[in-house]
């Protein structure tokens, strides 16, 4: 079953009936018509019970002795069926901030992860009657979906191609939103957005993984330096040969070795003047 619109009238009609009944009852008491006066008081109380106030971005779910009659979404003062129950529910956009969860990624590394979920109620019937507490339902399902999505990806990709939690935050958030919408549709909730708010290695492996990241960064930098050094040496040899300076293989090897050491080394090179000969 889905949300439906309930029969309703302007609540000012109920107020008019209430004041009219009270006024007539007072007049009846002055005319010694006590029974009729009490009947008018009962009518006034009944008319007052039909009135409900709906605030902006709020809905009133109307039930009558256990039967769902419908929902009022429009703000204002409304008149509904007498003696009906009126349950108010917020339609405002709300945030849910998950706690920091400890999860194992796809590689088995323990990580800490948290997310914020932006949602709102779009079906009041499902939110109130299909789940016990839709707010608690959103909380539990959000954490469950976050655990599931986090376990499908590695924290980071060091050598292989593909998605990772750290490198593809937008894609992971989009998948989290899709999975959350599938889980929360039964509660009449629409997921507007979800984002990761915390992502880190667990304390027991944080130091080791930091060293791994540093080593990976050093290797990547060294690879770029070596590639550039080889290009520079090749260019130097070509320019020397273009200017007519011919080097035998031994001298060329010595020059290449010196240039590579000077360029690749992480320390400043110390020049050494050779006053002798290689032979």
From TrEMBL:
InterPro entries: Band_7, Band_7/SPFH_dom_sf. It holds the Pfam family Band_7. SUPFAM superfamilies: Band 7/SPFH domain. Residues 49-213 form the Band domain. Keywords: Membrane, Transmembrane, Transmembrane helix. It comes from the Bacteria. SMART domains: PHB (SM00244). The chain crosses the membrane at residues 6-27, 34-54, 60-81. This is Band 7 domain-containing protein. It comes from Paenibacillus pectinilyticus.
């Amino acid at each position: 079953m889905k949300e439906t619109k309930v029969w309703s009238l302007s609540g000012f009609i109920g107020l008019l009936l209430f004041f009219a009944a009270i006024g007539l009852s007072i007049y009846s008491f002055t005319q010694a018509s006590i029974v009729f006066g009490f009947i008018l008081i009962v009518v006034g109380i009944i008319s007052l019970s039909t009135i409900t106030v709906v605030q902006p971005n709020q809905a009133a779910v109307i039930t009558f002795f256990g039967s769902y009659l419908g929902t009022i979404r429009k703000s204002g003062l409304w008149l509904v069926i007498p003696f009906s129950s009126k349950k108010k529910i917020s339609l405002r956009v709300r945030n849910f901030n998950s706690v920091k969860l400890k999860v194992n990624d796809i590689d088995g590394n323990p990580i800490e992860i948290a997310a914020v979920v932006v949602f709102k109620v779009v079906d009041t019937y499902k939110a109130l009657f299909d789940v016990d507490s839709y707010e608690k339902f959103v909380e539990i399902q959000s954490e469950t979906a976050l655990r599931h999505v986090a376990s499908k990806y590695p924290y980071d990709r060091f050598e292989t191609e593909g998605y990772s939690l750290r490198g593809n935050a937008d894609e992971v958030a989009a998948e989290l939103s899709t999975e959350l919408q599938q889980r929360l549709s039964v509660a009449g909730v629409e997921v507007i957005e979800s984002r990761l708010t915390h992502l880190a290695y667990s304390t027991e492996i944080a130091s080791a993984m930091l060293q791994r990241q540093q080593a990976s960064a050093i290797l990547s930098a060294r690879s770029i330096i070596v590639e550039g050094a080889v290009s520079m040496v090749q260019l130097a040899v070509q320019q020397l040969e273009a200017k007519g300076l011919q080097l035998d293989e031994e001298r060329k090897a010595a020059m290449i070795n010196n240039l590579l050491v000077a360029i690749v080394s992480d320390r400043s090179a110390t020049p050494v003047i050779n006053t002798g000969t290689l032979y």
